[in-house]
Amino acid sequence: MGGIILLVGLVGMLGSLGYLVFSVLRKRPKKSAGIALGVSAIAAVIGIATSAAPLTLSVDAVQLTTDAQGAAVIKGETSEEATLHLDGEEIKNNKGTFSETIQLDSEKEHTYVLKATLDKEHKDEKIVVTPSKEFVALLEAEQKEKELLAEAETALVLAESEPNQKNFDEAATLVEALSKTYDDHDERLATIKENIAIYLAVETAEKSLARKDFDEAKKQVELASLNKEDLVGRVTALKTKVEEKEAKDKLYAEATKAVENAEKSPSKDAHKSAADALAKLPAEDEALTKRVAAVQQTVKKQEELALKEKQEQEQREKEQLAQAEQAHQQKEANQAAAANQAEEHVLVTRTGKKYHTYKCGNGDYYEATLSEALGRGLTQCSKCY
Ligand SMILES: [Zn+2]
């Protein structure tokens, strides 16, 4: 600025001097040229005065410690016309003084560079700002809180995705450990708590696959305020499983009943019914299979026993028949013998006309029955009879 005024003053002086010379030579009034020359001279003097003013910069302290919040004030004086930059950012020059509040954002000290510029001249000052112990403690506390908050958030998200007592307790403990209260946390914990029973009902039904538990879970899921869509999906899948289990249970009940019947009254038909019922089962049941095998053994033994009895009966009948036949033959033989014995025996000869009771003459006597002798037309020997 001073330079420009000086330049204007010098040009003005030259101009007005020329005008003055011209006025003297032409004998014209010299008053206005004189005034112009005077004014120009004054301007030149002012220009010299101002342009000669040196650039100054001073700060109150080059070592600063922040307050408990991490703030510090850099203060000082500079030339009125100087432009100030602190770490590259322009700060206000308030007619030669400045006061800038800075804020540290970490526990590390920071060296600020203050630069004053005037025309082409510049000056630098370095100010080292150290965080106070209180500020370091505050940062540490804030960091700790931030970590705790992140942990609480993670626990809350987990509990919201899977509301159960364990997840709820963990989230609640972490929320309690925070130094500040967050409204949103209490609401979220309350919601999680409401949904624990709903999830429990669904899990119970998924484990038991019982119709009663399924109905309860379905009713509870209607009230869900967390992950309802997911829960509805689980209940829908559950319905199919419950129906499948019921169908399976029915098959097992039928198979068990058939096996019990076969055990109570073992027969070929009862065994077949039991085996058929077992074949309908979705998976082989070892215990029932063993019981059916036992029934089969029993039936087989029964059949063998029946066959043996039949054979024995046949044998007995055959023996009885044989005995009867023998008895009959014996009887006939006896009768024949008796008849034989009953018939009188006589002695005859081949050529004789008589039958005898003893050898009453010469000849070849042999024994014959009376009827035989009579049949041949023989008559009683008069000697013997
Ligand atoms: Zn005779």
Fill in the keyword field for this structure.
single chain; 385 residues; alpha+beta; Immunoglobulin-like; 5 domains; five-stranded mixed β-sheet; three-stranded antiparallel β-sheet; rod-shaped; binds zinc ion
What order do the helices and strands come in, and which of them pair?
Layout: H1 2-25, H2 31-52, E1 57-59, E2 63-65, E3 71-78, E4 83-86, E5 89-91, E6 97-103, E7 110-118, E8 121-130, H3 133-161, H4 165-177, H5 183-208, H6 211-221, H7 228-264, H8 268-279, H9 286-342, E9 345-348, E10 354-355, E11 366-369, H10 370-375, E12 379-380
Parallel strand pairs: 2-8, 10-12
Antiparallel strand pairs: 1-3, 3-6, 4-5, 4-7, 7-8, 9-11
Helix pairs in contact: 1-2, 3-4, 4-5, 5-6, 5-7, 6-7, 7-8, 7-9, 8-9
Bound molecules: zinc ion (ZN).
Number of strands: 12
- What is the count of distinct domains? 5
Bound small molecules, deduplicated? zinc ion
**Gyration radius, in Å:** 71 Å
Order of strands in the sheet with the most strands?
2-8-7-4-5
